[in-house]
Amino acid sequence: MLLYIDPGTGSMLFTILIGVLGAAFYSVRMLWIKLRFKLGSGKVEADVKGIPFVIFADDKRYWSIFEPICRELDKRGKDVVYMTASEDDPALQNDFEHIKAEFVGSENKAFARLNFLKATIVLSTTPGLDVYQWKRSKDVKYYVHIPHAASEITLYRMFGIDYYDAILLSGEYQAQDIRNLEKIRELPPKELVKVGIPYMDKMIARLEKEGPAPEHERTVLLAPSWGQSAIFSVYGGKILDVLLKTGYHVIVRPHPQSFKSEKEMIDKLIAQYPESEQLEWNRDTDNFDVLRRSDILISDFSGVIFDFSLVYDKPVIYTNPNFDVSLYDAWWLDTPLWTVSALPRLGRELTEDNMDNLKDLIDSCLTDERYVTGRKEVKEETWEHIGEGAERTVDYLINKYEELTAEKEEK
Question: In the predicted model, what is the mean pLDDT of residues 132-155?
Fold first, then answer.
């Protein structure tokens, strides 16, 4: 019989292992320093300086989040080590002079490397710092988190951002939610800085440059998230049947995680609904083209809803966002999810009762002017400093680095 170790126990054992390895590592390191001291007649050179800036991405899809920031850091001549847990990350082929990208292993191997990291500032979009396998390194001065969607900061798994030193935000409601969580959990206040959304700035600049998609037949993009509350888990192939009956061109773009965590379901759907002139399955790493040539989006609680609405200025159809929040930070708060108030202003809700009238829902969303007004309102609430995200982010990182190094010199 195979030995089963539950995730919680596995995390605990991994933590113990990391602690043992860490103690051994620093013991050997100190022994080496003492030996150098004796051999050098009491003169020892300063230990190797830490990396000024490290960016960590746990998946290749986050290069779109970090690329505008890397471009700005490179423009200002700041040396950065970009650590990725994806062996095929496009960051590894970047042509920036000051951005050195390296594959640090996947999953636990990557975290083991990060746990012994020596750096001044680490910027990441990965939640769970100091909660599971990824531990704060004693030789990292400051951890900064940047979200990868223009929506709730409380829809991470519980305690996902508690142990970061700073969070870069795009809306005031995000800051209020974090402060409320800190008060409830009696945490020291983090540094909250509203910088905007760098990756969306890049998307809107690219769209302005390339212009709208060429004339095409009406196109519907189905882009579900993954998990028990996602569209395919709830409706299965029924939604594809209804979409194909509309006569519109249909693009299906499952969440990348679906191909890992829900592979059997996705493979079955692809076999049942093969590509045709009317239907296409999309797995492009860069979603710019598919969003540009789609007229309307159908999704659930995926962050792509806000990319599509706020950058491409188009309506959406969404499923009920009241999914189970018991595993998320939002569970701790009495205030309703901001997303719940935003979605009705962006489009119509899809339910079991109105699914058979999906064609009418699509047509009404594309012609109703109230959704044009709604998109403007939502954009103002969740996307401050439009066009300035990368510059403001880099301004903050450089200023924080200078502050931290000045403190070290004083000590």
Answer: 94
